[in-house]
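User: Run a structure prediction on this.
Assistant: Running it now.
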Amino acid sequence: MYQINISPDKKFCDISPALYGIFFEDINRAGDGGLYAEMLINRAFDDGVIPEDCTYNADSKTITSATGWVSSFNCAETEGIYGWTASGGAHMALTDKDTLNNARKRALKIRFNGGMIVNCGFEGISVKAGCKYRFYMFAKSEKCAQISVSLMSEYGEVYAQQLLTVEGDYAKYECMLESMSDNNKAVLSLSSLSTDLVTIGFSSLFPTDTFMKRENGLRRDLAEKLIALKPAFLRFPGGCIVEGFSKETAHRFEDTIGAVWERRPHWLLWGYNTTNGLGYHEFLQFCEDAGIDAMYVFNCGMTCQARCPDYFDDELVEEMYNDAVHAILYATAPADTEWGAKRALNGHVEPFRCLKYLEIGNENYGEEYNRRYKYFYDKLKSEFPQYTYIATDHTEKNGLLTEMVDDHFYSDPIFFATNNGMYNSLGQNDVQIYVGEYAATIGCKRGNLYAALGEAAFLTGVERNQSKVKMTSYAPLFNNSAYTAWEPDLIVFNNHASYSIPSYYMLKMFAENRGSYVCMHNVITDYDKRYEHGVFRYTFNGEAIIAGSTDENSRSFSADVDIINGRLTVSFWSTCAEGEDQNHYDFVCEDGKCTVIHYNGWSRETICEGHCDLVGSFAKVEIDTNGDEFEIRINGSQIHKATLKAVPHISAVCTVDEATNELVIKIINITERDITVKIISDIPMTDKALITTLTAESMQAGNSFDTPKAVAPVANEVQLEDGKINIGARSVNVVRIALR
């Protein structure tokens, strides 16, 4: 039986206007060559510079930080000039002796000798006939050198060409290039007959058709896809890049404002360099242009704790604190103040009004974070009380003042579907929640319908709890298809096209159909058990237990362990996968505490907690599993017995749209069969409904460059018979029914 009972005139909670937002992090080359419309790769020539305090291994093409974190590094300057090639007798080399300014680490010295140098762009430069592109460079030459700037095919066919005359010390030289042809694999070439030395300190190529026609702007099609989601806010700039994996790679606001050629570069822990062209100013400008709120995330004095962390000393913590303060003042101070004047100099005289949220760190936790969080929160709240401050851990559990906590979940779709009641038990006086990063990842790397179904089921629970869960944002946002570091991502692009995964369309449906308030309702549904499988893995104080044993079907475990004097960890139903694909349940026994935790993807869920007071040291530990049940005994006494949460066939949430006098019902069917749902309302409904449905023939169905809308919403008007509506298999649905 499937039924939704609704009381439209009984308000359960108000909607949170900020519930659906977006989160940008420069991952998968989402910045330069992506949302930031720059078309030249390595435009500042410093991509191959090894970050300070890191060592380079040429054999493995990796760098290692001072604390031991190893990261890919495939563009070392000792092995070529990344993105640039020379031909026809031209010779080029990098130098650190004659750079454009103190922010630039390298310049490019060239003797053309009748030849050319070429930039390949981001897997090619995409040009269109009749479209214009603005090129500029800072260059110098002791003698007059005439340089041809061309857009051309990789085979030498010229589409646009202009001549620049370079002479004397560094100066900015620019020109407009109008292409005569279409080509997604074009290149930019600089050529000259000169044999004299020419030095280039910075270069850039931008389309003139950017979002809002801004000169240092955003790629229009990608920005418009973001706005189509109707976001309430934008979280920026990360993500793990805020922390970095070393002191030098930690994010600093002051490196991201001013003329782009005067901004320090930033080696990102995702394995590439950014020139910070898409910086703090551009972030605020986009929020203002889009009419949305801004959330700024800043480093609180520590690097990424998942990457051999480094905890900054008090002096550097204070430096990071001042960096955060300066960012706030840059956005909001009058133009006649120090930081307001810097903003005005960059073209925005009036303060930005969009800054609303400040997040202290990213994915930080533990004692080191608590100490830094308190320092930042206490001082900032005193000086800037008007903002909402967000913690990255549940600092309220340690007695710290906490306004909002940023929860992150990367798991499989079933984890999301079974946890749609995760926030039901939160009290009205508990801390507010921001689900700042979430995505179904396991089995969904390319982005498919299955992921959207699980996420949608989870979000119905979030919508029911908007008095406690105030904001959400999917992550990551963008993926350049040629530079993938993380999947799935909401929007996939190359240098000329883009498409959105099914989760994008699900979120668009949800954001466009908010209603005015959540009304009282209850959902009646059948369930499927969550059957787990996998092997046992067990350790004591970090080392394997020799005496432990499991049966041949991996359904039971037994071991004699000195659990009073150590830490016992038994993983069961373990698939043995690591990282984001992991799925296992850990029984952890230490200091009399016995806890079962489910690790799924990058998420963890406490299944049960308890205590065990033992007489003597050694104990017999036994674990039995059976499909969706487990029992744990110590010395024959039952410590835990639990059944996993079942998977609801349908998940739903109901709001009332007061402007249209309609019920807005979001219904997710995660099964492989059609389901008839009866809708019963305390207030009479009309017998017609508008139903918008996201579905496909397969759970694995997704979109691509060739079929960008293979999985996209379709709207239909349907007739209700006795309040019954058909909800198709594998579908996300928004049903709107007028009240009489």
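Residues 314-332 form the longest helix (19 residues).
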